[in-house]
Design a protein that fits this description.
The protein has 135 residues and is of the alpha+beta class. Helices cover 16% and strands 43% of the residues. An 8-stranded mixed sheet has the order 2-3-4-1-5-8-7-6.
């Protein structure tokens, strides 16, 4: 079993940060500031979150993760098989705040997230863009 591992002895190897999120108290106010004042390229809204594109990295603002401190930053790591990576890390004793869950249905994929804590209680995210099977 291999989940993107490039390190001998490790089944999971997180190497690509695909998204950074800030926890905010007012998503509409934050969207206006980042879009109109800072000129960021708006992508989409997803409930209590709003997303922008910053080069190769997606930037999110939201009240979605109530377990993150206000003003806290969340790093999201891309994984191909979120359920398998979640199961492996949970079996290793990683403290998951939220198991894998669907966050948004996009035109060409579904966006799934899971959140966990590192030993210092920082919240980190795993992200998977699940594309429908080819017909």
């Amino acid at each position: 079993m291999n989940f993107q591992s490039h390190t001998p002895g490790s089944l999971v190897h997180l190497e690509k940060i695909c998204q950074v999120a800030l926890t905010v108290t007012d998503v509409a106010r934050a969207r206006d500031f980042y879009q109109r004042t800072l000129g960021m390229r708006f992508l989409f809204d997803a409930g209590s979150m709003v997303f922008f594109q910053c080069g190769d990295i997606r930037f999110a603002l939201g009240t979605e993760n109530a377990n993150a401190p206000r003003g806290g930053t969340i790093l999201y790591f891309t994984v191909e098989d979120l359920p398998a990576v979640h199961a492996h890390l949970a079996a290793e004793g990683v403290d998951f705040v939220q198991p894998p869950h669907l966050i948004a249905r996009m035109p060409d994929h579904d966006l799934w997230l899971a959140f966990f804590r590192d030993p210092d209680q920082n919240v980190l995210g795993l992200m998977s863009e699940v594309r429908p099977p080819a017909v």
